[in-house]
Design brief:
alpha/beta; binds S-adenosylmethionine; Rossmann fold; two-stranded antiparallel sheet
């Protein structure tokens, strides 16, 4: 049985999302094949050339147009990075990709700390973030788990790993947010879980998801990079606090974007409710921490089991919500 009520419409939604991502990961696989055909086997270069705005274009015209349009939008709106709205005038928007990757991955690495033994991404696609963590300095000897709905995403991750980085301990597992099953993670190892723009695909996450994450053997903390800023009260997340009107406008744009696409609407309220009930501890909430598309901006939330003695390392404990 699914964890959520309303299973007919959810089953439809799940089917639609799955077919969209099967198609996207096939497109990325075509890019990978072109790069491998050059004889390239360096993880950093292969990884970069698989990204939407680097390397060979997508064969699929629809995907190509969609991502060209994203680049144009970044020019129009600017992007958010660490409490600044930065305009892209002369700067190549591809730098935005590199900058925001670096900022997010470094933040994740300090939250996870040097002793993490197992890093788990839920809704991991082809493992872009797991490979990035490894490249940006997460522990070399940790296990990297990509848990993903689509077979195309899981197979692509395994292929990148086997072609480019045999020293990295990469594991893939089938995973569905609607039936969260962590039985693949059976040994007790210091474990950090994260999500990056995958809970966005689930209109309502269930309390069972959080309960099951808490039960992963060795679970220490969970970090979300998700476009859920509009769910969070308060607008004091830009360094220039006089920009109240601009912050409200970005909030409204994010809400509209999520509503139009039936994206997630309850991640933050659910976590806050569990915190107030004393069931988890929220360490960090950084509203609109970074963005590409400004109306689908990324908020960072870190939480862990209740009564954690100390703050999760490296987060600074910033709470934009309270
Ligand atoms: C926007 S992509 C992000 C992929 C990856 N996290 C990244 O940042 O590159 C969303 C991912 O969520 C996955 N997804 C969608 N619905 C899911 C579900 N019900 N369970 C698990 N993963 C799901 C998709 O297959 C896709 O890989």
């Amino acid at each position: 049985m699914p964890d959520n009520p309303n299973s007919d419409s959810l089953a439809e939604r799940r089917k639609f999302v799955k077919s969209q991502y099967d198609h996207l990961w096939e497109g990325v696989n075509n890019k990978l094949e072109k790069v491998l055909a050059y004889g390239e086997r360096d993880l950093s270069r292969v990884h970069l050339f698989m990204r939407r705005n680097f390397g060979p274009g997508f064969d699929d015209a629809h995907l190509q147009d969609k991502y060209n349009d994203h680049e144009k939008k970044i020019f129009e709106s600017g992007f958010i990075c660490d409490r600044q709205l930065i305009r892209v005038n002369a700067m190549d928007p591809r730098i935005v990709t590199l900058m925001t990757d670096a900022v997010k991955m470094r933040e994740a690495i300090s939250v996870f700390g040097p002793d993490v033994g197992r890093i788990v991404e839920l809704g991991s696609g082809w493992g872009k973030n797991l490979f990035n963590l490894f490249k940006f300095g997460a522990p070399l000897n940790a296990e990297y788990w990509g848990m993903e709905l689509t077979r195309a995403g899981r197979e692509l991750m395994e292929r990148v790993a086997s072609e480019t980085v045999s020293s990295m301990k990469v594991h893939s597992a089938s995973f569905d947010y609607y039936h969260a099953d962590f039985s693949a993670l059976s040994s007790t190892i210091n474990t950090c879980v994260f999500t990056h723009h995958s809970i966005e695909q689930i209109p309502e996450v269930s309390v069972q998801l959080i309960e099951r994450i808490l039960l992963i053997p060795g679970f220490r903390c969970c970090l979300h990079f998700e476009p859920c800023g509009f769910q969070i009260p308060g607008n004091r997340w830009l360094a220039d606090s006089s920009q109240i009107g601009l912050m409200a406008k970005i909030d409204e744009g994010n809400r509209r974007f999520a509503e139009k696409r039936n994206q997630n609407n309850n991640l933050y309220p659910l976590l806050r409710e569990l915190e107030l009930a004393g069931r988890i501890t929220i360490h960090t909430v950084r509203k609109y921490f970074t963005s590409h598309l400004i109306n689908n901006a990324t908020t960072m939330i870190v939480w862990g089991p209740k009564h954690t003695e100390s703050q999760a390392p490296g987060t600074g404990g910033i709470r934009d919500d309270i």
